[in-house]
Design a protein that fits this description.
alpha/beta; ten-stranded parallel β-sheet; two-stranded antiparallel sheet; 9 helices; EC 1.-.-.-; oxidoreductase activity; LLM class flavin-dependent oxidoreductase; oxidoreductase; F420-G6PD/mer
């Protein structure tokens, strides 16, 4: 089965006392030819900057790299306003925004900020309604109505239109979320920390089957994997995503070939982060691009 050329990026943690380094890493990624920057979204974390404010600031300091929340916390971000935020930032950044979106987690913390506390089934249904709301507000209709139990629109006026068509990439893990991804989303954002290759294979089949059942081409659903691990300098090979640059090249090429992963967003777990990011960008990424024929 054909695959799209892989893209590469960085996963940044929005530490409030680390803005200068976040800005420097974003500028480096932009100049070095990376494609994506994903920033986690946990509004209840007191040490973190607001993700959308941070993305706006970093987008203004870069020229070509695409940003996305990895992933936006739906229970604390109303989808109508989220749609407006994405469209606005996509215009300001000249089409460099995608929307990573999650159903929610850490419900005690969400409730502590006044958000809803949802069961698993409620969270999935709310996410599906949110996708419909967001897409309706990215349309060129004069007004839109969307019924829903969690989110609805009653004659809302869409606009402004995004600069390009942002993708909605879901942070999905369970069967219902994976089925929703295949049926209604533009992409899937798993994390290697909880999604080893065997899980990616099974989950990918679920997504493909759901897409086909909905009359969609499964290949239109992107697969962007958060890859966390250590790129060693001493030749030590400790296994999957834990070893020298060539180990990483081999692992990422296998994921691209066998699991159709077309985006790799790197998060170093050990060692000096800047040096890890340089090894990834300057040694791993070029070799994977060559090996993938991109």
């Amino acid at each position: 089965m054909r695959t799209r050329p892989p893209q590469f990026g960085l996963f940044l943690i929005p530490e409030a006392d680390d803005f200068r380094r976040l800005a420097e890493l974003s500028a480096y990624a932009d100049v070095a030819g990376l494609d994506l920057i994903g920033i986690q979204d946990h509004p209840y974390q007191r040490r973190f900057l607001d993700t959308w404010t941070l993305i706006t600031a970093l987008a203004a300091r870069t020229e070509r790299i695409t940003f996305f929340p990895d992933v936006a916390n739906l229970p604390l971000r109303h989808p109508a306003l989220l749609a407006k935020s994405v469209a606005s930032l996509d215009i300001v950044s000249d089409g460099r925004i995608q929307l990573g979106l999650g159903a929610g987690a850490f419900w005690d913390a969400v409730a502590g900020m006044g958000g809803p506390r949802r069961t698993g089934g409620e969270a999935v249904r709310a996410l599906e309604e949110a996708i419909t709301v967001i897409r309706a507000l990215w349309s060129d209709a004069r007004s839109v109505r969307v019924p829903g139990s969690f989110y609805s629109l009653a004659g809302a006026h869409p606009g402004p239109l995004p600069r390009h068509r942002p993708g909605i990439w879901l942070g999905a893990r369970g069967p219902r979320m994976l089925e929703l991804t295949g049926r209604a989303a533009d992409g899937w954002v798993p994390s290697a920390a909880w999604a080893p290759p065997e899980f990616l294979a099974e989950a990918g089949r679920r997504i493909d089957d759901a897409a086909a059942a909905a009359g969609r081409d499964p290949l239109t659903v992107r697969r962007v994997l958060n890859v966390s691990g250590t790129i060693t300098a001493d030749g030590a090979d400790r296994g999957f995503l834990e070893g020298p640059p060539q180990r990483w090249v081999d692992d990422l090429l296998a994921l691209h070939r066998d699991q159709r992963i077309d985006g790799f967003v790197f998060w170093p777990t050990e060692g000096e982060p800047v040096e890890q990011i340089r090894r990834y960008t300057e040694q791993v990424v070029p070799a994977v691009r060559t090996g993938a024929g991109s």
